[in-house]
Automatic annotation (TrEMBL):
<keyword id="KW-0808">Transferase</keyword>
<dbReference type="GO" id="GO:0016757">
    <property type="term" value="F:glycosyltransferase activity"/>
</dbReference>
<dbReference type="Pfam" id="PF13439">
    <property type="entry name" value="Glyco_transf_4"/>
</dbReference>
<protein>
    <submittedName>
        <fullName>Putative glycosyltransferase</fullName>
    </submittedName>
</protein>
<dbReference type="InterPro" id="IPR028098">
    <property type="entry name" value="Glyco_trans_4-like_N"/>
</dbReference>
<keyword id="KW-0328">Glycosyltransferase</keyword>
<feature type="domain" description="Glycosyltransferase subfamily 4-like N-terminal">
    <location>
        <begin position="24"/>
        <end position="184"/>
    </location>
</feature>
<dbReference type="Pfam" id="PF13692">
    <property type="entry name" value="Glyco_trans_1_4"/>
</dbReference>
Length: 403
């Protein structure tokens, strides 16, 4: 890894300012750049906890308008305003690039393609770190999202699943991609072991965005099924609503009003202290209805030494592959989720031992230090022109060798 004597000027751009999955991975990447002695200029779309954290680590942070490709952008109203937003965003991006004159641009997620074009037009090498895998979208949408990556010099992906979805959409991208599994930090201090006996209500936990694709409604339905069959269980939902999905939270609260009033379901809202939530639970749930590119929340549960049940879809099975304290359930199926929870409960003594062993493995497999080093090397070797293209299969083999 380079020292400050050989530092690079890196412009790191991210489309959010919060502290969820891809936000945290962006922060880890920026931390890696800084620890390696590089000069990092961060660009975010607004103020928020992410910017506060990055400034505290030593990064300079600019705030700039940037059009983000979300589903709302594909609505009739969105399509009317998108061209203007893209044009103004491109002009502002080029202006920032000319002002800071970076050696390389690190673009986080594929939802801000104007930065890929701005870097190319400015003659600056660019790498995009993909955290998406929109497998359920139409081929036209998948191709439209992936095609701007042809402007990049390198693509980093967080899972083999993400790589496969991307390569199916635009096969020409295959040799640009390198898979780097997310780095997930473990809780500081001593880990609180699961309780030896499940006396009283079984404490279930959902951590994530309140949105249809994350499946909190499926978790509530599964809870009802467990209780209907004699299992005393409570569910805690920790997370805030995704912008534009306020209606979903209202519907969720309405549908679960009886359980909420009885204290059986709790909607906590967002918290930065996910480890305290995990320490207080018995079993974590990741009931995603649509394919996830990775599974940070599942890995966090493993690192907290808690059994976890995840949907058998997308990159989630990949994230918990070889983790004996994890069980799989069919996505969107509340009955299957309830049955998986029941399996964990029935095997509780064995699950306690499995959770301890799984944590030890995850500490190595998802070490943030390895993640930072891998991303930093890819970005800085790109500037030197020494990066050689890799296929996802090649990278998977390399990754296993470092675990």
């Amino acid at each position: 890894m380079r020292t400050a004597q050989h530092s690079h000027r890196i412009m790191a751009v991210h489309p959010g300012a919060e502290r969820y999955g891809s936000d945290r991975m962006f922060a880890e990447a920026v931390t890696g750049f800084l620890l390696a002695g590089h000069d990092v200029q961060v660009v975010l779309p607004g103020e928020g906890p992410l910017g506060t954290q990055l400034r505290a680590t030593g990064a300079s942070v600019d705030i700039a308008d940037m059009p983000v490709l979300r589903k709302s952008a594909l609505s009739p109203r969105g399509l009317i305003t998108l061209p203007w937003q893209m044009t103004t965003g491109l002009v502002q991006a080029i202006s920032l690039l000319r002002s800071h004159r970076p050696d390389v641009v690190y673009v986080s997620t594929l939802t801000i393609p104007t930065w890929l074009l701005a870097a190319r037009l400015s003659g600056v090498r660019v790498v995009c770190h993909v955290h998406e895998a929109e497998q359920a979208a139409s081929r036209v949408v998948r191709t439209g999202l992936a095609a701007p990556l042809l402007l990049t010099d390198k693509v980093i992906l967080n899972s083999a699943f993400s790589a496969n979805v991307l390569n199916e959409a635009v096969p020409a991208l295959e040799r640009r991609g390198t898979v780097v599994p997310n780095g997930v930090g473990a809780p500081t201090g001593a880990t609180i072991a699961p309780r030896e006996k499940l006396e009283g209500p079984v404490k279930l936990l959902f951590v994530g965005r309140i949105s249809p694709r994350k499946g909190p409604d499926v978790a509530i339905d599964a809870l009802r099924r467990l209780r209907d069959t004699g299992t005393d269980a409570h569910l805690r939902i920790v997370g805030s609503v995704f912008d534009g999905y306020e209606w979903f939270e209202e519907q969720l609260r309405s549908d679960a009003a009886d359980l909420i009033d009885a204290g059986i379901v709790t909607l906590q809202g967002f918290t930065d202290d996910v480890w305290s939530e995990l320490a207080a639970c018995d079993i974590a749930l990741v009931p995603s209805v649509m394919a996830e590119p990775f599974g940070n929340t599942a890995v966090e549960a493993v690192l907290a030494q808690r059994p976890v049940v995840v949907s058998n879809i997308g990159g989630l099975p990949e994230a918990v592959s070889g983790i004996d304290s994890a069980d799989l359930a069919r996505a969107g199926d509340a009955l299957a989720l309830a049955e998986a929870v029941r399996r964990v409960i029935d095997a509780w003594p064995q699950m306690i031992d499995r959770a301890a062993a799984a944590r030890d493995r995850a500490l190595i497999r998802f070490a943030p230090e390895s993640y930072r080093a891998s991303v930093t090397q890819l970005v800085c070797d790109l500037d030197r022109g020494t990066t050689t293209p890799s296929t996802a299969t090649d990278v998977d083999t390399q990754t296993e060798g470092t675990r």
